Each structure stands twice: as structure tokens, then as C-alpha cells.
Amino acid sequence: QVQLVESGGGLVQVGGSLRLSCAASGITFSTYGMGWFRQAPGKEREFVAGIRWSGTSTYHADSVKGRFTISRDNAKKMVYLQMNSLKLEDTAVYYCAANPRGYTSPQDYGYWGQGTQVTVSS
Asked: How many angstroms from the chain centroid is the CA of residue 64?
């Protein structure tokens, strides 16, 4: 059974930082691309960041480039999203996802976590 469990969300002020973590089980983690998505109320889900199975290549959406960084630890079966310089518009539920085919195509992510809430306040 595939499980992706996110943690690290919470309430933070504008300009602050948070690090999201995702623990994976039930998949051969080191062969999967991993990604982070987010969805704000009334908005479509957005592909925020992705990382190659090896960790050697990453993708970051323009909306977060330079502020967010995705990383992974294959030995621990973990993926992270470091979020700095947070803005009000970063408020959303953040989801961890796994992709058996790569890491850049949002439609190929087939396994999802339950999500963690990130709220940025002024």
C-alpha cells in the first residue's frame, strides 16, 4: 500500500519560512519522481515543484522560483520543500505526490498524500 504523509505545515507570517516533509512508503522510492502541488480555495491545483528520482534535476514553478527548493533523501525515503520569503498567495493545502514516469509532467503523478495546510498571514 502506497502511503505519502506530509508534515510541516502551519501558520507563518509574510516573509517567513517553513519546511514541508513527505515520508513515502509502499513504493520503490528511489525510482520515482516526486513533486509538490498546492491548491488554494477556489483555485485549480498548481504544480509547484518536482524532482528527478536521482535528485539531480528539479523543476520549480515560476511563482515560487528563487523562494522554494525541493530536495529528497532516498535513503530516508523523504522529500522536502523548503519555502522561504513566503507570501500571502502561498496560502494553500500542499500535497506530496509520486510519479513513476518522470517528474516534470503533472498528469503523470499517480500517488498523493493527504495534504498539509500552509497559511501565510500578514
From this structure: 11
Q: What is the CA radius of gyration of the chain?
A: 13
Residue 95 is predicted with a pLDDT of 98
Mapping DSSP onto H, E and C, the string for the chain reads CCEEEEECCEEEECCCCEEEEEEEECCCHHHCEEEEEEECCCCCCEEEEEECCCCCCEEECCCCCCCEEEEEECCCCEEEEEECCCCHHHCEEEEEEEECCCCCCHHHCCEECCCEEEEEEC
pLDDT along the chain (122 residues), means of 10: 97 98 97 98 96 97 98 98 98 97 92 98 96
